[in-house]
Amino acid sequence: MKKVLMGIIVLVILVTIMLFTYNYLLSEKLVEEFLQDLREGASFFEHPQHELLKELVELEIARELYVVSTKKGLKGTSAIIGLKKGEFEFTFTVERSVTDTSKTMNVHGIDIVNGIMIQKDENEENYLYVFKIDDNEVGLPSPHDFEINSGEVKRLVVIDGKIAALSPLDLVTIDKVMFFDGQSITGEKKGKFIFSKDIMRYGVEDGLYIGQKDIDLYLRNNIVVALVTREKFVPDTIRVLINDTGFKKIYHEEIVVSSTGTITVSSIEDGSILVAKDTLIKVNVDGNSTKLTIGQNEYSYNGRVYLTSEERIYFESIKRGAALNLKPGYRGSFEIYASENKLYLINEVALEQYLYGVVPSEMPVSFGLQALEIQSIAARTYAVNNIYSSRFRNYSAHVVDSVSSQVYNNTDEYQITNQAVDNTNGKIIKYLNKVIDAKFFSTSSGYTAKANEVWGFSDQFPGPEIPYLKSKAQGLMGRYSISNEQAFAAFIKDKSVVGFDSGSPFFRWEIKISEKQLRKSIEENLSNRFNADPNSVLTLEGDVFKILEISESPLGEIKELIIVKRGEGGNIMELEIVAKNGTYRILKEYNIRFTLRPICQEIPVEIHRKDGSILSNYSILPSAFVYFDQKYEDNKLTDIIIYGGGNGHGAGMSQYGVQGMLKAGYTKEDIISHYYENTQIFKLY
């Protein structure tokens, strides 16, 4: 038995020695096979260092590699690999462990990285190049005197800590950014470029913005591996997406334009033509092509069409004003482009001139110069914040000209509003040295809303708190509580309340609407809000509210409106509509206000305001600071009296509140810090 056992042990030892010897000899052979594969451009797709090896092949460096020496040991085989560049030799190591069951050769001491050069120094033995690689400054020596200038991005072949060679990168300069996201960037003239997954960004500006100019892209195989901003971005020009008549759509089926001066029509591909003053230019769309008719001549463009003039540009096809009887004239230049059989119209204009069209559209001129100056600062701040966020980048714009941003060119310019803009030239509001999101609205109910209880962030509602947009009482003359539904009802019904906003006719208002009128309005609007914001229009299924398509007959009869949640200032955040055919939960004040629009074409719905005035079929519920007094007969809902206060979303600065505070003796600085807490006014330019 002992002999058998000893025999087995000896056999195991012999097999182990044979396998070790085979593996030992195989490792040495694999070095040559590995280099030969590299020289011949073989694929190493399964290799963990695939990208590095692939680039060595692409750079043809692999053809120049040779074995300097090999070393065999108990742990495996390693080889020193040489690369000759001029009179200098650079070496790195490949190795294979005997414990490695694969035939993979592992490479050490060579890397290929992108970096932007900061400076170059020379000593007796080497040149020292200081590069910024990722977020680190790295000094790399090399015996070579490379012709590199400070600020240039290079792809470096680094062997044993020294720069052995440079991998070529193609340089493209974007003249103006028209679109960007995490995957790509599109320039006005150069077109679209795809970012690499590990793109490196350098330069004087951290962000990317629509309209930004002169950005250097460094490309490898037509993919952007590095981006450099050369100039600090100054948001002194804004790009406005122009809606059609009545601000109904952000696109147009037809555009008719003229000017009191000569219009230059141009495109990047087709040059330019001059159009005499007062000549109509008709613009139509054919798929993704733009068709222009000027007199008897027709022109077709596949790219953007640019309109410029020394005088105002007017659009016969767009009507503005409360009665839609204003033909707006615009400063600045225009771009028209076609997409999916729709025309899009962008006004690029100096920021201060843009404000000439915003301030009178957003605040009554009768409020006076001081109020208009405060409005100018808030509107400028809001615009700059949107320029930086490039919110409408999908359309190559910063803002739209409607309430989705701030209303622009909906009335004529006035001397006093232009003066207010000029008096505050360049002034904006910052919080902790960052431009704030300067929300404003018409009238408060006596309390403002917390911004995060009005809007969400991504799919989160409430959103993250914004420290300078808080809920607070607005100069109320008396002690009021809104801590529960009964207290809020008493407050919102009380027409004797006095505060900063009590001079507004919308400070208190009342609507009486029948169940049939409200049902018709909800059924017309519920599916629209679901399509616009499906995460905020939920349907009860079993015991759970879910995201479900709205049926063709969602209500039947309304049984009850239930206020599920109010914000700190009293605004409704969540509303349940309980009906015969279904129960729905609506989140966010805008969805609630739009769903409960006080409109009925058969029997108009009236809003009775504090000053005795009556408005019919108002386009949206004025605010979400409301209380529902629901009337029943025989256990059936018949009518709802809506007691409300304020007009608008309720977060940030109240325009009527500004007027009230000025009358009470507050300064402009006091008022701005009241509505935007702990902020400061800065000069942008």
TrEMBL record:
Domain of life: Bacteria
Keywords, ordered alphabetically: Membrane, Transmembrane, Transmembrane helix
Gene Ontology, cellular component aspect: outer membrane-bounded periplasmic space
Pfam family, one: SpoIID
Boundaries of every Sporulation stage II protein D amidase enhancer LytB N-terminal domain copy: 340-431
Transmembrane segment boundaries: 7-26
Keyword NAD on entry: no
Any single GO BP term: sporulation resulting in formation of a cellular spore
InterPro entries xref list: Bact_Sporulation_Assoc (IPR051922), SpoIID/LytB (IPR013486), SpoIID/LytB_N (IPR013693)
PANTHER family reported for this sequence: AMIDASE ENHANCER, N-ACETYLMURAMOYL-L-ALANINE AMIDASE-RELATED
Protein name: SpoIID/LytB domain-containing protein
